[in-house]
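Subject: Sanity check before I submit

Could someone independently write out the structure tokens for this chain? I want to compare against mine line by line before I put it in a report. The sequence has 402 residues.
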Amino acid sequence: MAEHDGRKLIPLEGLRGIAAAIVVLYHLVLAFTPKGVGVVPHGHGVLDLIIQFLLGMLNGGAAVAVFFVLSGFILSLPFAQDRRLSRILVGALKRWPRLAGLTAIGCLFAFALISWSGQDYQAAARIIGAKWLATHGNAPISLADLTWQAALREGLINVFTQGEVNFDSPLWTMRIELFGSFAVFLAAPILFAIRGWGVRLGLVAAAFLLTGLGYPYTYFADFLTGTVLAMLYAERRLPELGNLRAAGLGLLGLYLFSFTYEQALLIHAPLKRLIPGEDSHYIWDAGAALIILVLLGNPAMRRWFSGGWAIWLGFLSFPIYVLHGPLMLSAGSSAFMQGVGVLGLPVAALLAAFCSLALTLLCAMPLAWMDRLWTRLLGALTRPLMRPRAAPFGMGLARGQG
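---
Independent answer below. Compare away.
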């Protein structure tokens, strides 16, 4: 495999952007259609299987698993070359402010939108019959709790310590992202320091078993999957894939990505017979791993996912994720209520979806630049804490510094 330059990781940023887009589309369907994503087409033969596969792509849970696998990969990779304690401490020190910068802005933005739109989301939900919309994205909020102080406190602290998401419901993932990152900072240096793959995989399997399937600990498997992929990548063990093999593995990865226990889709019946239980994370992790293998291992896919569209989509992914829920529940619902009396329910729902998407993209752009500046500032502030790497033995003498 070629040298590890920054551009080779652009495909993963494109994948992150696609995962964010899937979450947005998933929530749009939940918000503005009466049956959400639970519809199961039947009576059309082979066409039903194709439609089921496409519906399976609107898998918000699997997209979140992809986020976590990618985080495990990206956060682990620096430890391939540098396992100093100072790097571990600086990484852990930066992680909360790195995330909290955007989550605080998102919650304050949501406060402003809810104050403006009021109960429009409830009125729209009654007409559409959308449970997700009626519950404010599964995060009901009382108007008595609607203060900017509560929004700021939630964005800075409560979303990470308590999983509180009254203002911006998609941020339920942030607590898992923070503590999953800490798990990576602990595990990755140890796993990279161990040279035997048998011991490495044994430790990872033990961690899977110890964390178990209870919420939120089962998500640690996502991060550790990313760590294993980072070790394979750093040690040039990822295979180069021809187009035919890449197509087969990619389709298998998408099939695993589309899996849920909640939907009674015929295409998933074989998996349900093979794998007992009701937790999908290990299946989604396998799907994410296969997709990453294809993106990094197939030259054609690597080139295509390194284009300008992937760079921009990755750049906007976090702001899109933070902003889409509040905009959908406020501006989208208000647009629906303004249009339903004149346009009818289906067209008004499309109008609401269009307004939600357009405003999300419009607002994500300045937030993305703010996030970039914030990240650079954190890097500058913590750089002095990084102890310089010691030169290899004899290097100082060779340079006349002895």
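---
OP: Matches mine. For the report I'm noting this point. Confidence is low (pLDDT under 50) at residues 1-5, 391-402.
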